[in-house]
Amino acid sequence: MSGTDVCVIIAARNAAETITTAITSALLEPEVAEVVVVDDASTDATEAVARAADDGSGRLVVLRLDVNRGPSFARNMAIRNSRSALISILDADDFILPGRFANLVAGDDWDLVADNIVFVEHASVRDVLAGDIAQFDADPAQLDFAQFIAGNISSRGVQRGELGFLKPVMRREMLERTGLGYDENLRLGEDYALYAGAMLAGARFKFIRSCGYCAVVRPNSLSGQHRTEDLRRLADADLGLLAQPGLATQHQRVLRRHERHVRDKYRLRRFLDLKAADGLAAAAKFAMASPANFLAVVRGVAMDKFDALTGSGSVSPAREPRLRYLMAAENAGART
């Protein structure tokens, strides 16, 4: 294998309806030497459908877990069972646009390199497959740590677009040198935690604004569902990053902002869970347990009520663009 060979890894659970498109899009790329699918204890036909997507080139490997272990475990398993120099993450309900890796893997000025993402409703997938997306200049830039962390703090009433959504190509050598992998305690923000840890370890994160990855927006997507506990674990992951020695002051500040942002989401969700399960008295006890709990709950409940009254908590479907891009870019034009 060469230093530009790519392994695409796909963690899949109950993805029988979408996995064929994901695998096919990866196998069509000439730089892809391996596609490793890990079926994370699906209860549908994901494994069989994935195997049926084999193009006969010998590049597809499908592994099966009998117990659901989460995307971090599945991705680490895929990495262990691959050998290409470059590793690319692909979600099981997304797909790669033609020519993506040719645009990404050139040059040696990166340890992680990502491109723009187009978010598309399931009903518009055919338009993207037909090439009906914007064409942007690459405009390459290096992401710095503070920029990346700040880019993962979402705002109410704004379409989610955190930089943790990025799906970079990563050098295997970088992962081995830093000893990094996906945190198997996380089922939310596992990408964010890995990228942040890599950057703190000195990894260079390059970003280009041309678009090579399509994220399909589905109301029942597993990536859109998470437990209250998942928020707590993600906030704790920030504490782990903050504990690293020699952290620059500006990095400490932005990490604390992100930790508070996620922790407050946890506090509000925990309050609402207790209220639903055990009643208002139990929820109030949690809210009064600390000033931080109280402020997060009061602020969160007030904002939820305000959003419900004004309709400002979400973007109206009538105003949503048919295709949405993670990062704005210049010189856009429809592909022909």
Number of H/I helices: 12
Relative helix content? 25-40%
Name the beta content range.
15-25%
Largest sheet: 10 strands, mixed
CATH topology of the domain at 1-93: Spore Coat Polysaccharide Biosynthesis Protein SpsA, Chain A
Average per-residue pLDDT, rounded, comes to: 89
Query: Which architecture of the domain at 1-93 does the CATH hierarchy give at level 2?
Result: Alpha-Beta Complex
Oligomer state of the chains in this structure: single chain
Low-confidence sequence ranges: 315-319
CATH class of the domain at 1-93: Alpha Beta
The CATH superfamily of the domain at 1-93 is Spore Coat Polysaccharide Biosynthesis Protein SpsA, Chain A
Number of strands: 10
What is the CA-atom radius of gyration, in angstroms? 21 Å
The succession of helices and strands, N to C, reads EHEHEHEEHEHEHEHHEHHHHE
Overall, the morphology is: globular
Helix/strand-derived class?
Answer: alpha/beta
Distance between the termini: 35 Å
Describe this structure as you would to a colleague:
With 336 residues, this protein is α/β, with parallel strands linked by helices. Among the domains are: 1-93, Spore Coat Polysaccharide Biosynthesis Protein SpsA, Chain A (Alpha-Beta Complex); 228-310, no CATH class. The protein contains 12 helices and 10 strands. The protein has helices at residues 19-27, 46-52, 71-80, 100-104, 125-129, 145-150, 172-178, 190-200, 228-242, 249-278, 280-287, 291-310; strands spanning 6-12, 32-40, 60-65, 86-89, 95-96, 112-121, 141-143, 169-171, 205-217, 323-325. Strands 1, 2, 3, 4, 5, 6, 7, 8, 9 and 10 form a 10-stranded mixed beta sheet that branches. Strand 2 (32-40), helix 2 (46-52) and strand 3 form a beta-alpha-beta unit. Helix 8 (190-200) runs parallel beside helix 9, helix 10 (249-278) runs antiparallel to helix 11 (280-287) and helix 10 packs across helix 12 (291-310). The longest helix is centred in the last third of the chain and has 30 residues, at 249-278. The relative contact order is 0.14.
